[in-house]
Amino acid sequence: MAEPETEATDISLRAAEVATDVSETDQPAERRRLVSAFTKAATSGARAATSGARAAGRGTRAVQRRASDGTGWLADQVVAMAPRLRVRDQAALRAQFPGKSPDEIADALIERAARAAAAAGGGAGMVATLPVLPAFPAEIVAETLLLVGIELKLVAELHEVYGSPAPGRFPERMSAYIASWAHRRGVFMIEGGLIFAAGSPLARLLRRRLAVRAGRSAFSLGPMLTGAAAGALFNRRETRKLGREIQRDLRRRSIGAPHDYRWHW
Asked: For 69, what's the count of Cα atoms within 13 Å in the CB-facing half-sphere?
């Protein structure tokens, strides 16, 4: 049986894969299938890892840490997930949306991400109606990771659309986009690198954002199909709002801005 730490690695990898696939498909049924399969697998894996750790006496520290420091554990998974996301560069996006302006491509990306986020909320709500007592915390973790993955991919691709990608290698760029997601601003200049260490200002902000996001995910677990409807509505609205905020910031900076960009917040 997998240790809890291995299970944590697996969920961040799987969340990245599903967030990518659900963001790029145009088929509502496929979005629902992907979300439902991921939520069920994540919930089952969390139950198995927890019970296995208790029975065998292994991994107890990891399980206790997750329970007592949920947002810290969740932040660690987001940092692990980000570089596993598949992000299309400017050339790929232009090829996929031929003849479209940057604003038109950005609009399309935001709407697709909003639909994917709605599916994530609806999918978790549907799982919660199954005649088996669900592990609600595990479902909240699954939905929150999936939502953040969808939104991080959106943030990264909006930067590509407007010709303002973060500097550095791909893992460094994705770390910058986590900060962009947390700050609700485009990446512009980063002084001294990004510090996600516990207690740092960025780590505290990330944890606060994740706590709010996880709280909204709890709406998906409401009674019967009302939970699915509420989750879909909240997620669609919040992801669209995030996309518009990043888009406005990038547009404002790109209009008449010099091209010797210095990166900072």
From this structure: 13
Q: Is the pLDDT of residue 149 over 60?
A: yes
264 beta partners: 189
Evaluated on CA atoms 122, 138, 206, 17, the torsion sign reads negative
Eight-class DSSP state of 191: S
Helices (H), the chain: 4-24, 28-56, 60-68, 70-81, 90-96, 102-127, 136-161, 170-183, 201-217, 224-254
Helix (H, G, I), strand (E, B) or coil at 218: helix
Q: Residue 11 has which token pair?
A: 């969920």
Q: What is the pLDDT of residues 29-60, one digit of tens each?
A: 898 888 888 877 776 654 444 443 333 334 33
Output the furthest CA–CA distance in the chain (Å, rounded). 63
Alpha carbons 198 and 196: distance in angstroms, whole number: 6
* Count: domains in the chain: 1
CA within 13 Å, CB half, 12? 17
pTM exceeds 0.70, yes or no: yes
Examine residue 241 and state whether it is found in any structural domain, yes or no: yes
| CA–CA gap between residue 69 and residue 67 (Å, rounded) | 6
pLDDT digits (tens, 9 = 90+) for 95-146: 999 999 999 999 999 999 999 999 887 555 444 444 443 434 677 788 889 9
Give exposure, 178-217, as e/b (b: 16+ Cβ within 10 Å).
Answer: bbbbbbebbbbebeeebeeeeeeebbeebbebbeebbebb
Other C-beta atoms lying within 10 Å of the C-beta of residue 14: 21
Closest among 163, 166, 161 to 179, alpha carbons compared:
166
* Residue 198 domain boundaries: 4-254
Residue 233 tokens read as 């509505």
